[in-house]
Design brief:
Order of helices and strands: HEHHEHHHEHHHHHH
Structural class: mainly alpha
Number of helices: 12
Shape: globular
Length: 323
């Protein structure tokens, strides 16, 4: 308890004007990478907006599954928007200074979107679990109201814990280096620059990483274990194929999001075979690519979205040709 009293009673807090983001120092052709990310961002915005538009304006798609898909698309837009334009400004336009307050704002949106992405994948796993394992009860258990409530809880929880995490950053003093080695104003690289004790910030980051990534991932693994047990109990081979085929797009999203994070974590913290520049490059890709791939997967693998997307495209083509 003495640590917490000392922490909160700290009287002299020094906040700098801002920080200098440095990274990608070993890559001479890094500008090509950020031109690629600019293309990724355009595709991300277009496809996620298209998915949201199709689901919102087609009442037949107002089902629990597609409410969860819209939730994921909104999160992808937030994640990519808070990250990619800033990276282009910093590394492509060579303007790497970010003010202290803007740094905290970027931290908030990045980590909130990252946690929400993890929760959104768990929510989609819950949807598949109910549909496949409890088909007779799905319309009473997994309703629009219950799905909306679950998503609201994940948003409220995420906003609360991330707000606390960012609030405690304001209790740190920065009196030495202001150079943040990362691809954005990252939480851990920033608090390590503090000249007073950052134990609380370290504990918060460690606990929330395990809680907000590990728990949803564990729930997804548990859900698919139950789904596989249920599927292999089905007598008909066609029923098994049909049940598993509805999980393909979700499994792709889970793999795209979690595998890079797990590989980078294992290589960096246990094998010690990844240097800082490789880690920054790998994590930036792991943050920027999933929001781009997610809407493509649902557009191509989900027949209902694909049919309506093609209808929208044909309608606009017809209007252009007519005019």
């Amino acid at each position: 308890m003495s640590f917490f009293r000392t922490f909160w009673n700290s009287s002299v807090i020094i906040h700098p004007p801002g920080f200098y983001i440095i990274g990608f120092q070993k890559y001479p052709f890094v500008s090509v990478y950020f031109i690629f990310l600019a293309f990724v961002y355009v595709v991300t915005v277009l496809f996620n907006t298209l998915v949201i538009f199709i689901i919102v304006f087609n009442h037949c798609l107002h089902t629990p599954k597609f409410v969860a898909v819209v939730n994921l698309a909104v999160i992808d837009l937030i994640l990519s928007t808070c990250l990619i334009p800033s990276m282009i400004k910093i590394f492509l336009l060579k303007d790497n200074f970010i003010t202290f307050n803007l740094c905290l704002v970027q931290m908030f949106f990045y980590y909130a979107a990252g946690i929400l992405e993890s929760c959104a994948l768990a929510v989609l796993a819950y949807d598949r679990l109910v549909v496949i394992c409890f088909p007779l009860r799905q319309h009473s258990v997994n309703t629009l109201r219950s799905m909306t409530f679950i998503i609201s809880v994940t948003w409220s929880f995420t906003v609360g814990i991330v707000s606390f995490s960012i609030a405690i950053m304001t209790r740190l003093s920065f009196c030495n280096s202001l150079r943040v080695f990362s691809y954005f104003c990252d939480y851990a690289p920033v608090f390590r620059l503090a000249c007073n004790d950052y134990t609380l910030q370290w504990l918060t980051a460690s606990i929330l990483t395990i809680l907000c990534l590990g728990v949803p991932f564990g729930f997804i693994l548990l859900s698919y274990t139950v789904i596989l047990v249920t599927v292999f109990r089905m007598k008909s081979l066609d029923s098994r194929k049909k049940a598993l085929s509805t999980c393909v797009e979700h499994l792709i999203l889970v793999a795209v999001f979690y595998i890079p994070i797990l590989v980078i974590f294992l290589m960096g913290f246990y094998l010690r075979v990844i240097d800082q520049d490789q880690r920054v490059l790998s994590l930036s890709l792991a943050s920027c690519i999933p929001p781009c791939i997610n809407p493509m997967v649902y557009s191509l693998k989900t027949k209902a979205i694909k049919v309506r997307a093609l209808a929208v495209f044909k309608r606009k083509t017809f209007i252009i040709n007519s005019s």
